[in-house]
Write a structure and sequence with these properties.
By secondary structure, the chain is an alpha/beta fold. The chain has helices at residues 22-39, 62-75, 88-98, 110-121, 125-139, 148-157, 162-201, 217-225, 269-274, 280-283, 299-313, 335-341, 358-370, and strands at residues 9-16, 42-50, 79-82, 106-109, 205-211, 242-248, 253-259, 287-293, 320-325, 348-349.
């Protein structure tokens, strides 16, 4: 995990896609800037390259690479963040180019940045294992220090040399470490599945809060359970799954409520895969409550993102309910239109912050769980 300067200076680099509007492109940059802020850094510069002028070697091409080098020197940049998922070789080539100006510079793509945020927020041993596994999968054997120079050296010799032997050793170490973590995660998943099955056998129903990160899930969780978990205006404030009982009056019984990691656009499949054991509570819940920020101008796009992740996780549509949160921040929300558009998901409108609509929401929970 990166530790040097207390508040690192970041330069964002992205591609301009001719198929996207300017509004979409700015929104993407705003989101990655929010990720940078959540990490604890500050954006000091931003560059945009036309997608058609990209490069297989460096992703952004030689001209834009030179422009980036000047910005790194002028703005004293510590970390360059590429707002995309790029190949390890491209990261390496950019790193070599940028190190001429700043030998300690770091180059991350979007996945690397998210993983660094995860590393800062992980509290449980399980979450730390999941992050370690995701980093291994993303970085490959390089995580153990295998440089591109080794591969080049071995290829140049044309026979089995020192570089090739080191590469093979790194690969073997990488595979062994992956297997070890997978085995440990499998044990944790088995224990978690046993807990889920035990609750089913005892007749306790479960509700899982899910949604785009920063939609207000934890505030709602606290409101319903009376707990006081971390509530922060930051992406991925919740990483580890939290489960607690609360009394559902309309049902006349206790239910389990879980709060877990928030989703985000273009969340790489490897991250979803790594966190499958954390998401077991959601996949097997009797009611999956999709919490939505109703004041977000990108609300519909974010609903679609979460729906796509539901499909990947195998969550049944009939188990999903929509809760439009933060109504205290929305003056133009057309509740009638939204109710008609999403009627299959029993939409509810609340403010987890002020408590507005919570009584009606719990009544809807009871009706859905009884049906």
């Amino acid at each position: 995990m990166y530790t040097p300067r207390q508040i690192p200076r970041v330069m964002l680099v992205g591609l301009s896609d001719p198929l996207k509007s300017k509004e979409e492109m700015f929104a993407d940059f705003e989101e990655v800037e929010s990720l940078v802020t959540t990490f604890g850094a500050t954006v000091y510069a931003a560059l945009v390259q036309n997608k058609t002028r990209g490069s297989l070697d460096t992703f952004i091409g030689p001209g834009k690479t030179e422009e980036a080098i000047k910005e790194i020197e002028e703005k004293e940049i510590d970390i360059v963040v590429i707002n995309d998922t790029i190949k390890p070789g491209q990261i390496h080539n950019l790193l070599l180019a940028f190190q001429k100006t700043n030998p300690k510079i770091l180059v991350w793509d979007r996945v690397s940045l998210i993983l660094e945020i995860f590393s800062k927020h992980a509290r449980t041993a399980e979450a730390k294992l999941q992050i370690r596994f995701a980093k291994l999968r993303q970085m490959g054997p390089r995580i153990y220090g295998m440089g591109m120079e080794m591969s080049n050296q071995a290829a140049g010799i044309g026979a089995k040399g020192v570089g090739e032997t080191n590469t093979e050793l790194m690969l073997r170490h990488w595979e062994a470490e992956k297997k070890k973590i997978q085995d440990e995660l499998a044990i944790l998943s088995k224990k978690k599945m046993e807990q889920v099955n035990h609750r089913r056998q005892t007749g306790l129903l479960t509700i899982s809060l899910v949604g785009y990160t920063n939609a207000g899930k934890t505030t709602l969780f606290n409101r319903l359970t009376g707990l006081n978990d971390l509530v922060a205006n930051a992406l991925f404030a919740t990483l580890d799954s939290t489960v607690n009982k609360f009394w559902l009056k309309g049902l006349g019984d206790e239910v389990y409520l879980s709060d877990t990691i928030g989703f985000i656009k273009n969340l790489p499949p490897m991250l979803i895969d790594a966190f499958k054991s954390t998401l077991l509570e959601t996949v097997h819940a009797d009611l999956v409550v999709h919490v939505i920020d109703s004041a977000d101008p990108r609300m519909e796009e974010k609903i679609k993102t979460v729906e796509e992740i539901f499909v990947e996780l195998g969550i049944k549509r009939e188990n999903v309910m929509y809760v439009f949160n933060k109504i205290e921040n929305s003056t133009t929300l057309n509740q009638t239109k939204i109710t008609n558009e999403f009627k299959e998901f029993t939409p509810a409108f609340i403010s987890a912050k002020t408590g507005a609509g919570i009584f009606e929401l719990t009544n809807l929970f009871s009706k859905r769980l009884k049906s």
